[in-house]
């Protein structure tokens, strides 16, 4: 049974402006440890790839927060929710700490998809009861 659905779109031009103003501190606020490592590698190779990665993760976390009905309030935090890739490349949601405990206690499972284009990144999340 579907518990919630969330979607979000991120304007990469606004994200770029935020990175220009705040530097990597913004990425460190939004990304978890696994994501931050990938972001740094991608950004070092090609700036636009790092920006797209950050945008898809930002959008996915916003979509997830909507799907679980909490928005960005406890136990939902930027860094407690990570979007990681399975070996196949499929994006998956990895939760930490209080958010992981809350999610498990409710008996939920999440599915996420992300996409990006030159100026936008988007994500769609479906959360279901197990």
UniProtKB/TrEMBL annotation:
Its cofactor is Mg(2+). Pfam families: ACPS. It is found in: Cytoplasm. Residues 4-123 form the 4'-phosphopantetheinyl transferase domain. Its EC number is 2.7.8.7. One of its GO terms (molecular function) is holo-[acyl-carrier-protein] synthase activity. The lineage of its organism: Bacteria, Pseudomonadati, Pseudomonadota, Betaproteobacteria, Burkholderiales. Mg(2+) binds at residues 8, 62. HAMAP family: AcpS (MF_00101). It catalyses: apo-[ACP] + CoA = holo-[ACP] + adenosine 3',5'-bisphosphate + H(+). Transfers the 4'-phosphopantetheine moiety from coenzyme A to a Ser of acyl-carrier-protein. InterPro entries: 4-PPantetheinyl_Trfase_dom, 4-PPantetheinyl_Trfase_dom_sf, ACPS, Ppantetheine-prot_Trfase_dom. This is Holo-[acyl-carrier-protein] synthase. Keywords: Cytoplasm, Fatty acid biosynthesis, Fatty acid metabolism, Lipid biosynthesis, Lipid metabolism, Magnesium, Metal-binding, Transferase. Belongs to the P-Pant transferase superfamily. AcpS family. The keyword Lipid metabolism applies. It comes from the Bacteria. Its main location: cytoplasm. Gene3D superfamilies: 4'-phosphopantetheinyl transferase domain. One of its GO terms (cellular component) is cytoplasm. One of its GO terms (biological process) is fatty acid biosynthetic process.
